[in-house]
């Protein structure tokens, strides 16, 4: 078999094999059980909590947890605005990069606070090393925030009937120190030895073999790149992200970065099962997600390996596939695979330029973000998927004429209203944003890099990526201006916090209800039948809301090419 | 919300210290043992230094040409063309590249030109190209440099980097290393 295909199979299998034991470890961390790393992190966390005057043992209800989350996020936002708007005159700026404009800083800070990392700047020219470090900090804490929110869900289904669901600060800090940091540290060391720079010196000037003089940007990238993947953030140190040879220097580093972005989202699925002692339920979730993931990934690998028919018709040797926007060290197959991993998981880092993907590959990348629940980002993937579970429970209940129940809790009108609002919010943000921008050519059409159907896809992609908190882009778009910075900024906020608060609220409400023991009539939620039901709900919600817009963009482009 | 503000600020400050000072300093310390002390792998050649992983522009006929680049291989920045597959202007540009290549490489059949040699990479700094991209340029270089074609083919074989552990990923050649070795060939 082709070495490019074997490479992908190994990457994916390895991720799953590592994620299962890692999920067990995550469950232990959140359950407060003993782990190997206790001797290191117990004292460190004690210092954290002592200085900040927080008692991590105090139990909070879901509302208190959400308030704590929003408050600390607000602190990061304000501090971030100050840092990015003054970085030009602060230290650690060897390349003398300027401070950010207010609208760009607004977009950038929000984008990193919400774990999206849409980047309307290029790292080489847009940030000082201090600015980069601040964003690295946000990559840790934004991932920790998402994971802490998911633990509230864990708690809601472990305890039978309860008001209090743990302590936000406790889960948040432990996510950062015990889960994200160890993975990042090991990976940083690997990357430094594989050729990713870790230096505070600025640009270097060299003379090429042909005698031209060029500059080479460097920086402390080896510490930055791991958390970008482990925390499913995706914001690159350099402008082109993991396509840059300093950010992803080899096929081996590509495997490591791929596994790194899969391991926490996959691990969280298994951790859920270990934590609530329903491991079959985890496998149901994993099954549905994996089927959906493969249905997007396999066609992409195939289409990228076949390449551009318009170039094939010119009569050259097209056997390497669609190489525009791709790196030779990864090849078309691993680039096509990455393009779906990064969009289903809300990482948004890229190792090839998605703008130059084949037409229907672009559609699959869009669909992955429109669904936004196959694996998904750190913690939030599970929260998004939970909404679809609730919808499926409700519909199944109606079909058999029983009160819908989930894990012994009645799902009633209030929970359903929240679930519906959250499910419809996502298409609403994407489609309204894209429609408005298309309606004003001075904001939309003029900023595009490609004409026709593909141009519309660029607009659609930017809003989809914002609403899904993904952060990848059809990067040809000229997006550093007032309109794009502000509109996507607001969509980022809504697309982050409502889909966290909604599912947490449902979990909190269900946790307060009386527990009804399971009987013969109870809907079994850990079976493949129920998995199919969830899948159908996802497919219908996504297909019905998004098909018309996809038909105008990538689908139309595909037919125009053939 | 009020009672959370002060703890939130304090927790943020202590975590900044931990995640942006202690963590990266530890990585930096260990990176001092990495190749070129973590400043990027380099090759010294004729008194000049070159970054192994950062591609260079090769346009002269006596060198193996590198892939097209949207940023002209200036690593001060990075970038791809971001052209969509159906963009007419882009397709015309690819055609021009093919024609230019054929003019500089007489006797080569169009069907021998591999796609990576006429398309720009994602970073604009791709240090590699495919084996076929090297082979298709042998005739031209042999003529200009007066070197035997067999010798050049041998050079290409020597410079070919096999898939990772012989199993994973594509074969490729580092263009810079290939051209340095080419200059050394007499």
UniProtKB/TrEMBL annotation, chain A:
The gene is kdpA. The system is composed of three essential subunits: KdpA, KdpB and KdpC. Coiled coil: none annotated. One of its GO terms (molecular function) is potassium ion binding. Part of the high-affinity ATP-driven potassium transport (or Kdp) system, which catalyzes the hydrolysis of ATP coupled with the electrogenic transport of potassium into the cytoplasm. This subunit binds the extracellular potassium ions and delivers the ions to the membrane domain of KdpB through an intramembrane tunnel. InterPro entries: KdpA. The chain crosses the membrane at residues 6-27, 67-90, 133-154, 175-193, 258-276, 283-301, 373-398, 418-440, 482-511, 532-556. It is found in: Cell membrane. PANTHER family: POTASSIUM-TRANSPORTING ATPASE A CHAIN, POTASSIUM-TRANSPORTING ATPASE POTASSIUM-BINDING SUBUNIT. One of its GO terms (cellular component) is plasma membrane. Belongs to the KdpA family. This is Potassium-transporting ATPase potassium-binding subunit. The lineage of its organism: Bacteria, Pseudomonadati, Bacteroidota, Flavobacteriia, Flavobacteriales. Keywords: Cell membrane, Ion transport, Membrane, Potassium, Potassium transport, Transmembrane, Transmembrane helix, Transport. The keyword Transcription regulation does not apply. It is a multi-pass membrane protein.
TrEMBL record, chain B:
The keyword Transmembrane applies. InterPro entries: KdpC. It comes from the Bacteria. Its main location: membrane. Keywords: ATP-binding, Cell membrane, Ion transport, Membrane, Nucleotide-binding, Potassium, Potassium transport, Transmembrane, Transmembrane helix, Transport. It is a single-pass membrane protein. It is found in: Cell membrane. The keyword Ribosomal protein does not apply. One of its GO terms (cellular component) is plasma membrane. Part of the high-affinity ATP-driven potassium transport (or Kdp) system, which catalyzes the hydrolysis of ATP coupled with the electrogenic transport of potassium into the cytoplasm. This subunit acts as a catalytic chaperone that increases the ATP-binding affinity of the ATP-hydrolyzing subunit KdpB by the formation of a transient KdpB/KdpC/ATP ternary complex. Belongs to the KdpC family. This is Potassium-transporting ATPase KdpC subunit. It comes from Paenimyroides ummariense. The lineage of its organism: Bacteria, Pseudomonadati, Bacteroidota, Flavobacteriia, Flavobacteriales. The gene is kdpC.
């Amino acid at each position: 078999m082709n070495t490019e295909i074997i490479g992908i199979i190994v990457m994916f299998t390895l991720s799953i094999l590592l994620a299962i034991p890692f999920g067990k470890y995550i469950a232990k961390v959140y359950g407060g059980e003993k782990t190997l790393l206790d001797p290191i992190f117990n004292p460190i966390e004690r210092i954290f909590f002592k200085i900040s005057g927080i008692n991590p043992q105090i139990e909070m209800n879901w509302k208190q947890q959400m308030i704590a989350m929003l408050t600390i996020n607000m602190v990061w936002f304000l501090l971030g605005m100050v840092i990015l708007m003054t970085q030009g005159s602060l230290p650690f700026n060897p390349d003398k990069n300027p401070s950010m404009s207010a609208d760009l800083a607004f977009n950038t800070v929000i984008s990193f606070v919400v774990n999206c990392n849409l980047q309307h700047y290029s790292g080489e020219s847009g940030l000082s090393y201090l600015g980069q470090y601040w964003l690295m900090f946000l990559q840790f804490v934004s991932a920790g925030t998402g994971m802490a929110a998911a633990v509230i869900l864990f708690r809601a289904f472990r305890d039978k009937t309860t008001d209090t669901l743990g302590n936000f600060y406790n889960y948040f800090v432990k996510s950062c120190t015990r889960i994200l940091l160890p993975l990042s540290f090991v990976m940083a060391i690997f990357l430094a030895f594989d050729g990713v720079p870790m230096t505070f010196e600025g640009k270097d000037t060299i003379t090429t073999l042909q005698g031209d003089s060029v500059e080479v940007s460097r920086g402390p990238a080896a510490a930055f790149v791991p958390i970008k993947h482990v925390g499913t953030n995706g914001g690159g140190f350099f402008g082109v992200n993991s396509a840059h040879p300093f950010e992803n220097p080899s096929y081996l580093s590509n495997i490591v970065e791929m596994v790194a972005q899969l391991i926490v989202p996959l691990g969280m699925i298994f951790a859920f099962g270990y934590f609530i002692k329903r491991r079959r339920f985890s496998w149901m979730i994993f099954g549905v997600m994996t089927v959906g993931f493969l249905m997007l990934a396999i066609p992409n690998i195939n289409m990228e390996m076949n390449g551009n028919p318009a170039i094939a018709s010119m009569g050259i040797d097209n056997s390497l596939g669609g190489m525009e926007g791709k790196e030779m060290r990864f090849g078309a197959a691993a680039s096509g695979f990455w393009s779906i991993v990064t969009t289903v998981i809300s990482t948004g880092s890229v190792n090839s330029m998605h703008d130059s993907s084949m037409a229907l590959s672009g559609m699959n990348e869009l669909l992955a973000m429109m669904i936004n629940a196959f694996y998904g980002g750190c913690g939030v993937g599970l929260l998004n998927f939970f909404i679809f579970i609730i919808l499926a429970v409700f519909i199944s209940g109606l079909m058999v004429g029983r009160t819908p129940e989930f894990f012994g809790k009645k799902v009633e009108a209030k929970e359903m209203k929240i679930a519906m609002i959250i499910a419809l919010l996502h298409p609403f943000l994407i489609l309204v944003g894209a429609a408005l921008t298309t309606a004003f050519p001075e904001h939309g059409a003029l900023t595009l890099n490609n004409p026709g159907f593909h141009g519309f896809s660029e607009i659609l992609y930017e809003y989809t990526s914002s609403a899904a908190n993904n952060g990848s882009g059809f990067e040809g778009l000229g997006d550093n201006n007032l309109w794009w910075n502000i509109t996507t900024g607001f969509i980022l906020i809504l697309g982050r916090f409502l889909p966290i608060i909604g599912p947490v609220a449902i979990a909190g409400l269900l946790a307060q209800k009386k527990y009804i023991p399971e009987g013969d009539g109870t809907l079994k939620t850990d079976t493949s039948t129920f998995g199919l039901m969830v899948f159908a709900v996802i497919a219908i919600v996504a297909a019905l809301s998004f098909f018309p817009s996809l038909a105008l963009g990538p689908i139309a482009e595909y037919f125009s090419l053939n | 919300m009020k009672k959370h503000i002060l703890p939130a600020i304090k927790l943020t400050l202590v975590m900044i210290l931990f995640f942006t000072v202690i963590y990266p300093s530890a990585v930096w310390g260990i990176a001092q043992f990495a190749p070129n002390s973590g400043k990027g792998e380099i090759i010294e050649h004729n008194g000049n230094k070159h970054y192994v992983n950062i591609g260079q522009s090769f346009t002269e006929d006596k060198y193996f040409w590198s892939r097209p680049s949207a940023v002209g291989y200036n690593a001060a920045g990075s970038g791809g063309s971001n052209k969509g597959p159906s963009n007419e202007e882009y397709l015309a540009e690819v055609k021009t590249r093919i024609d230019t290549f054929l003019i500089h490489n007489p006797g080569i059949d169009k069907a021998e030109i591999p796609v990576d040699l006429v398309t720009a990479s994602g970073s604009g700094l791709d240090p590699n190209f495919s084996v076929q991209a090297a082979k298709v340029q042998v005739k031209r270089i042999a003529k200009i440099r007066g070197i035997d074609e067999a010798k050049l083919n041998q050079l290409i074989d020597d410079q070919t980097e096999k898939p990772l552990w012989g199993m994973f990923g594509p074969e490729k050649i580092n263009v810079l290393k290939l051209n340095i070795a080419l200059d050394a060939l007499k």
